[in-house]
């Protein structure tokens, strides 16, 4: 059974930094896509950053230049470094994995099969 476990998160002031980490286990086929999604209260879950099993790294426009994503297949981990945080970054952050390379828009959360439990990030003004 595939499991994703997140760590990190917390509360910081505007301009601060946080790092999230996700460890994946139990898979028989290495996920092609692994990403971070976030969901603010009253809003839909949205893509934040995605790393493929290749070289593609995707960032939603609102975090470009501030967030970085790294994937270590040897350690089965996915990390998100968040710098210059803003209050609008406040959300529950989820790690997600999708095995197949093909099969719907990989920027959409519904195309991912496996999810972590989420970790809260709160940025105060």
Features:
50% strand, mainly beta, 125 residues, seven-stranded mixed β-sheet, globular, single chain, four-stranded antiparallel β-sheet
Blueprint (SSEs and pairs):
Elements: E1 3-8, E2 10-13, E3 18-25, E4 33-39, E5 46-52, E6 57-59, E7 67-72, E8 77-82, E9 91-98, E10 114-115, E11 119-124
Parallel strand pairs: 2-11
Antiparallel strand pairs: 1-3, 3-8, 4-5, 4-9, 5-6, 7-8, 9-10, 9-11
Describe the model.
By secondary structure, this protein is mostly beta strands. Helices cover 0% and strands 50% of the residues. It has no helices and 11 strands. Strands 2, 4, 5, 6, 9, 10 and 11 form a 7-stranded mixed sheet that branches. Strands 1-3-8-7 form a 4-stranded antiparallel sheet, with no helix packed on it. The radius of gyration is 14 Å and the shape is globular. 30% of the residues are buried. The model has no long low-confidence stretch (mean pLDDT 96).
């Amino acid at each position: 059974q595939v499991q994703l476990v997140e760590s990190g998160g917390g509360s910081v002031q505007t301009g601060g930094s946080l790092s999230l980490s996700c460890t994946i286990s139990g898979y028989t086929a290495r996920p092609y896509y692994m990403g971070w999604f976030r969901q603010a209260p009253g809003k839909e879950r949205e893509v934040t950053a995605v790393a493929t099993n290749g070289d593609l790294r995707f960032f939603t426009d609102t975090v470009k230049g501030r967030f970085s994503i790294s994937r270590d297949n040897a350690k089965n981990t996915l990390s998100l470094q968040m710098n210059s945080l803003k209050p609008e970054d406040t959300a529950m952050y989820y790690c997600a994995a999708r095995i197949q390379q093909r099969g719907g828009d990989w920027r959409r959360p519904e195309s991912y099969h496996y999810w972590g439990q989420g970790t809260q990030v709160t940025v105060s003004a």
